[in-house]
């Protein structure tokens, strides 16, 4: 069965694609152009009533929310491809803990940086320097905690790569590649080594080969 991934070359769909590649699951991308507003079309809203990508369709099963999709495939194909949830219930607990940290602590400030540095003019509103400054400060404090954690274990949940690390790839890529904030990673020795490790995985390179995010001309 080939999984249909509705999305674009955007960070949240990339999270799902990296997981599918790690789990050796075949997929097909159904392009949804956010700048043309295709995610608000009535047909698309039948799949994702909040009007966001990604959504997957697997036969007649439909699922949205990128982290829920990753958890679903990591569990469904536990023994296929890379084990991404940990081998014991204790490891699983730590994977879940760091997945929550990514979603609740890392994502909000980095998302604001993407909106205010990268997207504001394309979306037609002025970027707010105060929000940029506050978000960078918040993110810096979060990354200080990562630095401490990664001085004790190679990856976030322990000495094994997991969904918790993978979930950071798309927005860390934005930090490094398009936001001019690579120093936030590089100034922290262990975070920097972790980023080099996870971003050099063949799965992430394959996702980037599918295309990189570009603003409309
Ligand atoms: N919590 C959702 C967030 C998805 C999300 O923010 N998707 C963005 C693209 S990266 C989107 O569809 N933006 C268009 C919009 O929100 O109108 C998930 O993880 O799937």
From TrEMBL:
Keyword annotations from UniProtKB, A to Z: Cytoplasm, Detoxification, Transferase
Domain of life of the native organism: Eukaryota
Enzyme class: transferase
Gene Ontology molecular function: glutathione binding; glutathione transferase activity
Catalyzed reaction equations: RX + glutathione = an S-substituted glutathione + a halide anion + H(+)
Cellular component per GO, a single term: cytosol
SUPFAM superfamilies: GST C-terminal domain-like, Thioredoxin-like
EC number: 2.5.1.18
Domain GST N-terminal: 1-81
GO BP terms: glutathione metabolic process; toxin catabolic process
InterPro entries: Glutathione-S-Trfase_C-like (IPR010987), Glutathione-S-Trfase_C_sf (IPR036282), Glutathione_S-Trfase (IPR040079), Glutathione_S-Trfase_N (IPR004045), GST_C (IPR004046), GST_Phi_C (IPR034347), Thioredoxin-like_sf (IPR036249)
Cell compartment(s), UniProt: Cytoplasm, Cytosol
Record domain GST C-terminal: where: 88-217
Keyword Endoplasmic reticulum (UniProt): no
Primary residence: cytoplasm
Family label: Belongs to the GST superfamily. Phi family.
Protein name: glutathione transferase
Provenance organism: Prunus avium
Protein encoded by which gene: LOC110765923
């Amino acid at each position: 069965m080939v999984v249909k991934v509705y999305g674009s070359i955007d960070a949240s769909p990339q999270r799902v694609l990296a997981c599918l590649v790690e789990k050796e699951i075949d997929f097909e991308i159904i392009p949804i152009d956010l700048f043309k507003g295709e995610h608000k079309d009535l047909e698309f809203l039948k799949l994702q009533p909040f009007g966001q990508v990604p959504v997957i369709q697997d036969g007649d099963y439909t699922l949205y929310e990128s982290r829920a999709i990753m958890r679903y495939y990591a569990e469904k194909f536990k023994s296929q491809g890379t084990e991404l949830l940990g081998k014991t219930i204790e490891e699983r607990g730590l994977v879940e803990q760091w997945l929550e940290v990514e979603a609740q602590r890392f994502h909000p400030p980095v998302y604001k940086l993407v909106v205010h540095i990268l997207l504001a003019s394309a979306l037609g509103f002025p970027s707010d320097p105060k929000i940029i400054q506050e978000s960078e400060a918040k993110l810096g404090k979060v990354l200080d905690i990562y630095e401490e954690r990664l001085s004790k274990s190679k990856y976030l949940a322990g000495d094994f790569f997991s969904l918790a690390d993978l979930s950071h790839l798309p927005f860390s890529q934005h930090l490094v590649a398009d936001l001019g904030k690579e120093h936030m990673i590089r100034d922290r020795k262990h975070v920097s080594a972790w980023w080099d490790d996870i971003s050099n995985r063949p799965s992430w390179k394959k996702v980037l080969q599918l295309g990189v995010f570009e603003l409309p001309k």
